[in-house]
Amino acid sequence: MNLTIDIGNTRFKSAVFDGKNLTEVRAFDKSAFEEGLRGVFNRHPNIQKAIISSVAESFKDLVGILPQNVQVFHLDANLPLNFRSRYDDLSKLGADRKALIAAAVVNYPSQNVLVIDLGSCVTYDLLDRSGTHHGGGISPGWQMRLNAMHTFTGRLPKLSTLENLVEKEEITGTSTHEAMSNSTFFGLIAEIDHRIEYYKSEFPDLTVILTGGDAPVFSVRLKNRIFAHSNFLLEGLNALLEHNL
């Protein structure tokens, strides 16, 4: 059995795979991760291999938590990938983006795919049917946009996306609270739809994947047809693990 570990900006996620089949997903706050990871091994003592991905910090301390009989892979600049890339410096491509592209390769073979990850940042990655990654884009996520207005102005309030889910179609705000919330929400929808239309002009048969923590909120609002995958990054980590066995 395989274990994939994703160390994100705000939390840790783990997933257990039996071959390509996902059997368990867990999410932990950083303070509870060690205890949570031990619980994973208690439930799945047959885990033999693990892969670790981190966008924010070193995972040297994490390796010491894993049983010594587990073979550990790190998604770093030296790990062989299952795709080619036109990125100028592949070592600068984030581990999370590498995993998402790897998932697109195995889940949508011989297809043109755009992977959009709605997390702390919004990332876009374009993969063509030959398995070549063309690059993509990075922009601030929904919460980051709200935070920026509060941080870099004198009087705009600090808002949370969890408290400001937009339930109406009216883009015009009648309060500062609504003006900030509506503008960031609908602005991000417009950005995503425009990016999809841009790539569809080059790849008309484009398959669009939406993933990340904010994906459920935005997936129902986009005018373009998309496929929502909540565990796409974890599946990509497992694909890279299998690729390197």
Describe the protein in words.
The chain is an alpha/beta fold and 245 residues long. The protein folds into two domains: 1-74, Nucleotidyltransferase, domain 5 (2-Layer Sandwich); 82-245, Nucleotidyltransferase, domain 5 (2-Layer Sandwich). The protein contains seven helices and eleven strands. The longest helix is centred in the last third of the chain and has 25 residues, at 176-200. The two termini are 12 Å apart.
Strand-helix topology:
Blueprint: E1 2-7, E2 12-18, E3 21-28, H1 33-43, E4 49-54, H2 60-63, E5 71-74, E6 84-85, H3 95-107, E7 113-118, E8 121-127, E9 132-140, H4 142-151, H5 176-200, E10 207-211, H6 215-219, E11 227-228, H7 232-243
Parallel strand pairs: 1-4, 4-5, 6-9, 7-10, 10-11
Antiparallel strand pairs: 1-2, 2-3, 7-8, 8-9
CATH architecture of the largest domain: 2-Layer Sandwich
The CATH H-level homologous superfamily of the largest domain:
ATPase, nucleotide binding domain
Structurally, the number of domains stands at 2
Give the CA-CA distance, first to last residue. 12 Å
- The count of DSSP E runs of length 2 or more, i.e. the number of strands, is 11
Give the overall shape: globular
Amount of beta strand? 25-35%
Relative helix content: 25-40%
What is the CA-atom radius of gyration, in angstroms? 19 Å
User: Residue-averaged pLDDT, rounded?
Assistant: 90
Q: How does the major sheet shape up?
A: 6 strands, mixed
The helix/strand order is: EEEHEHEEHEEEHHEHEH
Strand arrangement within the widest β-sheet reads 6-9-8-7-10-11
Please work out how many helical segments DSSP would assign: 7
| Overall CATH class of the largest domain | Alpha Beta
Spans of 5+ residues with little confidence (pLDDT < 50)? Answer: none
**Which fold name is given in CATH as the topology of the largest domain?**
Nucleotidyltransferase, domain 5
